[in-house]
Design a protein that fits this description.
Elements (H helix, E strand, L loop, with lengths): L1 E6 L4 H4 L8 E10 L5 E14 L6 E15 L2 H9 L7 E3 L6 H12 L12 H5 L8 H15 L1
Parallel strand pairs: 4-5
Antiparallel strand pairs: 1-2, 2-3, 3-4
Bound molecules: zinc ion.
Keywords: Ribonucleoprotein, Ribosomal protein, Ribosome biogenesis
Family: Belongs to the DUF177 domain family.
Function: Plays a role in synthesis, processing and/or stability of 23S rRNA.
Length: about 150
């Protein structure tokens, strides 16, 4: 089992997606065997990241909770075998000591980030200052039209 803390600024690729690089990531990597005897590695990561809201462009704290696993093949033959099996669709790596766990950790954090980070509706100042400025509610417009028609008739 491996456990530790990495400063957010050490993840260069991740920092490109953040509003700023303050904070740290706690990680935990465990290895084990599933019933079939296959070895696996499980990763868990958590921390607070500063994302940029794509609605108001302000930074906000976002809680990361990532988890993933990979199977560890003992040799190339086993890796090939898994590739041909249905389970081959799952992630598998070779147990050759070359595995870059840091890159794996960063990849998993990147995969967990929201595609379009936005504040929650209550927290986003844009929504409070100009409610529905960009997107008029079509149902509200329809209601207004109906009212006009009633007045006319
Ligand atoms: Zn916002």
């Amino acid at each position: 089992m491996m456990e530790g803390v990495v400063a957010v600024r050490d993840f260069t690729r991740l920092c490109e997606s953040l509003a700023d690089s303050t904070g740290e990531i706690h990680y935990r990597i465990e290895t084990g065997l599933i019933v079939s005897g296959r070895a696996f590695m499980r990763l868990e990561a958590s921390g607070k990241l500063q994302l940029q809201c794509q609605r108001c462009m302000q930074g906000f704290g976002w809680h990361l909770a990532a988890s993933s696993h990979v199977y560890i093949a003992r040799n190339v033959a086993e890796l090939d075998l898994w590739d041909r099996q249905a389970e081959g669709l799952e992630e598998a790596v070779l147990a050759d000591g070359q595995f870059d766990w840091f890159a794996w950790l960063e990849d998993e954090i990147l995969l967990t980030l929201p595609a379009v980070p936005v504040h929650s509706t209550e927290a986003c100042p844009t929504d409070q200052i100009v409610p529905q400025a960009c997107k008029p509610n079509p149902f509200a417009m329809l209601a207004t039209l109906k009212q006009h028609q009633k007045l006319k008739s």
